[in-house]
Amino acid sequence: MSESSIQHRYATSGSSVVRVEGLRHDFGGRTILDIPNWTAHKAEHYLVLGPSGSGKTTLLNILAGLLRPTAGTVSVSEQDIGSLGSGVMDVFRGRHIGIVFQTLHLLSALSVADNLHLARYMAGLPRQDSRVRRVLDDLGLRSLTNARARALSQGEAQRVAIARAVINEPAVILADEPTSALDDANTTQVMNLLYEQAETCGATLIIATHDRRIKDRFTAVLELGARQ
Q1: Tens digit of pLDDT for each residue in 120-137?
Q2: Is 142 part of any domain?
Q3: Helical (H) or strand (E) element with 222
Q4: Under a CB-based contact definition with an 8 Å cutoff, are residues 100 and 161 in contact?
Q5: Above 80 in pLDDT, residue 194?
């Protein structure tokens, strides 16, 4: 039996951006994720909360089209992403879904700007220097435009990862444990940046974490229980 629960603490008439139906994922002979239905609406903020092993990262990987669930359907921007082939899914992800991974996966040999240009290229979008400059300005990274990613501090790299996630103005921003290794001051800063960028893009923000310090900042919580 699933221990997932959804706590909606708001009223909305907004259109759905993410819709999950009958979602189940099995691994190693056991069910690690079981969500009968869940909907995330346009420009809302959602917290996926739960202890280690509860399926948070698995859910984000499924929402991003990086992992196929054992059963169920996931729609993003009214597109059933399970029906897309891998190449088409890569382009769709690049245009509609921004991801801040727990491990940031910046290309260390490239400059900050080139990491952002590459994200546009991989989504089949034209080079847009003005967009890159604007995002770097918004995140306080303009002075690091030409710095190699390998030379960045952890805090700088995390801001670049946020910049990469929003460079294509996605409909959905997914962030996996963005505050788990941060002190209170830096947790506040990262959360403010994610909120500001989601608002700028008009994006739905979905954060998966076990960090209960940020729970009160959210209007809707999907709480996943650890599996036995």
Answers
A1: 999 999 999 999 999 999
A2: no
A3: strand 220-223
A4: yes
A5: yes
Share in percent of the chain as helix, strand, coil (round to 5): 40, 25, 35
Q: Give me the CATH number covering residue 186.
A: 3.40.50.300
4 in Cβ contact with 49 (< 8 Å): no
Q: Which residues lie closer than 8 Å to 20 by C-beta, 6 or more apart? A: 35, 37, 38, 39, 63, 72, 73, 74
Inside any domain, residue 129 = no
Q: How many domains does the chain have?
A: 1
Number of H helices, E strands in the chain: 6, 10
The confidence band for 56, taking pLDDT boundaries of 50, 70 and 90, is very high
Tokens of 161: 């990862």
In a domain, 138, yes or no: no
